[in-house]
User: Which sequence fits this backbone?
């Protein structure tokens, strides 16, 4: 055989071997490029922490969206846990950057007492993490998540860490967080596992006095605050944590504690764990020997002593400079006070503050101007610039570059790169804006530009949670939505209709249902659907109703069980579909929802109960294809079925994929599910005959998925709503 031919055979064999072994991506995966749909923060960030080791380095912890690091060169926040696949680890209980080495950072991660908890350790600023599972439970998304910081590093011996747990006392590590032992001498051993949905505050903060030791020798003085009921709430150790003494203070919970370079401890006290339900509080200052005095701002007391102080920060550069923020001060509004004389006098920065939210106009979603904020528990003064101050709220992070003793204070959202929201539902219409979203707490938005923060338009009615959205397939300017109010405010409707693509809305008022104390038509539990031409609306109330005149008149739907979600055919204005889970039947209406009748549904399992998803935020298990008339997709449990004849016959489309969520796009179906032990996001372009994974190990977002949908106008485009890391759009990556 000629040498050239042998060489060709050898190369061919090598290429075949490489194809079998494969790169990191297998042959049944498609590379996707993932981008956040921009809102600009949006959720509760319990605290922000500057690194004392490097100027321009800061970390942010959130309650359900993981942690972020500020990159001063890129001028944006970088998410640190997008590759994490453990849902619980997206709730960050505490965060601690190493005070000497800017490369090292630690996090305490755990969503609640019933989910896994761990200490995460990084030696590269959070790019990668080592995980140490721990026996003490955490509550990164429970009441009290604004306390802290619970995790503390000894500045004199940085491999020595302390952690204040919620339920099981104080813990220590002497090997940089790799192993942990309980501090036996600490007098508060913990209250044990909580019962039901209640939680404990536990050891709310640990503060280590660097002035009580020297480099290489452990610090001697350690403070710990406790936020559980009891006679004492503050403790001090002068022998490195071996023994502890009670420190006197107010009869309140020690919520937040920070220590300055002189060894002076500043404590914010509160009557409750927060971030809600706190009635009153106080601020105290403690000398290193334990002598304390009340330094609560006088004008806060004079305005009713409402709320408490969960934000406490000191300036390392200017001893005696301290700032505090209030929480739950509803009557007068939360604010920030700053003192430059060790708490003897304070100046309220609120009245002289101005906020520019032009880059994140979503903050105006409640129809009022941007106020100082709510749920303020994170407060930090830049250790390298005492005029650079930041604080966190329930919806954003504000920062100023000029907090001075006098003059106005200009605040702006410090949020580039942060997307921390819970997405309930979404729709990608056949025309108009590419995406319309339904959010928790923020109502929802029309996203004309996926890369810009949207202006709020979900008003009249305003509903803090949007639970369902539908559009008319042939008239996509017609949008309908239903939702619920997080706060119990008076309202006359829980549904809205728009005829201009979601820019303006009119209330949809239903016939009163239920008793006067619990109006079923107003509780936001019932999804609404609209026909392909926008003329017919159907609501899945306990007694289903239909309207053909924009909601002015309603009639009862015949043949449709109560509380049964209806899906409109996207191309035929007369057709609607539903699933009668009690009788195991697919129902169809061919008369614009006047009546429904069963169809054969051959090929479906006899038990369709798994298709009856419950709860106001549940996604529909039945969808109509935007491309083809009479084409349906139905999820029953983890199985997905496909019908091309209006529900008469179905074929299984999930194959070996166990489906959790699915959505439809142009010539494709997308799903969140598991195949071969791999959980991820998948795509099929041949009606479920083959599935390709489209996420990857760098894009897992804690595995907290809420909704997925394709785009009916852009083949391959997918939208993915998460529970904490915001909303994403994905497109096939360009070939290299």
Assistant:
């Amino acid at each position: 055989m000629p040498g050239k031919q042998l060489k060709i055979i050898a190369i061919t064999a090598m290429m075949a071997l490489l194809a079998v072994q494969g790169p990191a991506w297998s042959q049944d995966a498609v590379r996707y490029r993932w981008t956040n749909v921009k809102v600009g923060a949006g959720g509760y960030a319990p605290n922000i922490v500057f690194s004392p080791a490097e100027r321009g380095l800061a970390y942010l912890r959130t309650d359900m969206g993981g942690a972020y690091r500020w990159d001063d060169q890129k001028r944006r926040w970088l998410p640190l846990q997008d590759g994490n696949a453990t849902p619980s680890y997206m709730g960050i209980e505490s965060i601690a950057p190493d005070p000497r080495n800017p490369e090292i950072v630690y996090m305490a991660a755990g969503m609640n007492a019933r989910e896994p908890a761990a200490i995460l350790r990084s030696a590269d600023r959070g790019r990668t993490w080592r995980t140490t599972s721990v026996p003490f439970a955490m509550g990164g998304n429970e009441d009290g998540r604004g306390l802290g910081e619970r995790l503390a590093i000894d500045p004199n011996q940085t491999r020595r860490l302390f952690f204040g747990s919620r339920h099981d006392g104080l813990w220590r590590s002497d090997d940089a967080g790799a192993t942990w032992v309980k501090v036996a001498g600490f007098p508060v051993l913990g209250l044990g596992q909580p019962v039901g949905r209640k939680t404990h505050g536990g050891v709310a903060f640990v503060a280590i006095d660097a002035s009580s030791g020297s480099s290489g020798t452990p610090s001697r003085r350690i403070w710990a605050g406790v936020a559980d009921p009891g006679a004492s709430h503050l403790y001090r150790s002068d022998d490195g944590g071996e023994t502890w003494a009670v420190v006197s203070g107010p009869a309140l919970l020690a919520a937040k504690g920070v220590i300055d370079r002189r060894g002076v401890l500043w404590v914010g006290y509160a009557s409750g764990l927060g971030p809600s339900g706190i009635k009153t509080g106080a601020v105290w200052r403690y000398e290193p020997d334990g002598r304390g005095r009340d330094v609560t701002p006088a004008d806060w007391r004079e305005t009713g002593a409402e709320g408490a102080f969960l934000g406490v920060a000191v300036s390392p550069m200017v001893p005696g400079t301290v700032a505090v923020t209030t929480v739950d001060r509803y009557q007068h509004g939360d604010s920030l006070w700053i003192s430059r004389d060790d708490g003897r006098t304070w100046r309220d920065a609120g009245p002289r503050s101005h906020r520019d939210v032009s880059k994140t106009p979503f903050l105006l979603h409640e129809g009022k101007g941007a106020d100082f904020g709510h749920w303020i528990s994170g407060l930090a003064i830049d250790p390298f610039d005492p005029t650079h101050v930041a604080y966190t709220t329930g919806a954003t992070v504000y920062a100023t570059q000029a907090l001075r003793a006098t003059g106005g204070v200009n605040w702006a959202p410090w949020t580039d790169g942060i997307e921390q929201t819970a997405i309930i539902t979404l729709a990608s219409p056949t025309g108009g804006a590419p995406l319309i979203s339904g959010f928790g707490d923020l109502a929802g938005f029309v996203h004309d530009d996926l890369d810009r923060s949207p202006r709020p338009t979900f008003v009249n009615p305003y509903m803090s949670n949007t639970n369902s959205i539908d559009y008319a397939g042939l008239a996509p300017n017609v949008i309908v939505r239903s939702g619920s109010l997080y706060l119990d405010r008076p309202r006359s409707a829980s549904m809205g209709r728009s005829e201009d693509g979601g820019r303006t809305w009119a209330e949809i008022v239903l016939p009163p249902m239920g008793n006067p104390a619990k109006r079923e038509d107003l509780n936001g539990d019932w999804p609404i659907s609209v026909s392909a031409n926008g003329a017919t609306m159907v609501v899945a109330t306990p007694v289903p109703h239909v309207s053909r005149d924009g909601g002015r008149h309603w009639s009862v739907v015949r043949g449709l069980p109560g509380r049964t979600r209806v899906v409109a055919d996207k191309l035929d204005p007369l057709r609607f579909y539903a699933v009668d889970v009690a009788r195991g039947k697919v129902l169809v209406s061919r008369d614009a929802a006047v009546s429904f009748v069963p169809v054969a549904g051959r090929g479906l399992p006899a038990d369709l109960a798994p298709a009856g998803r419950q709860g106001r935020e549940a996604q529909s298990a039945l969808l109509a294809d935007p491309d083809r008339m009479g084409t349906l997709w139905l999820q029953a449990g983890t199985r997905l079925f496909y019908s091309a004849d209006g529900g008469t016959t179905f074929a299984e489309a999930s194959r070996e994929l166990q489906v959790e969520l699915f959505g439809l796009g142009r010539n494709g179906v997308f799903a969140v599910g598991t195949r071969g032990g791999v959980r991820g996001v998948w795509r099929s372009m041949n009606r479920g005959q083959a599935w390709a994974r489209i996420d990857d190990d760098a894009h897992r977002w804690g595995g907290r998925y809420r909704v997925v949908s394709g785009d009916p106008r852009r083949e391959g485009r997918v939208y993915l709503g998460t529970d904490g890391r915001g909303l994403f759009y994905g497109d096939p990556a360009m070939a290299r």
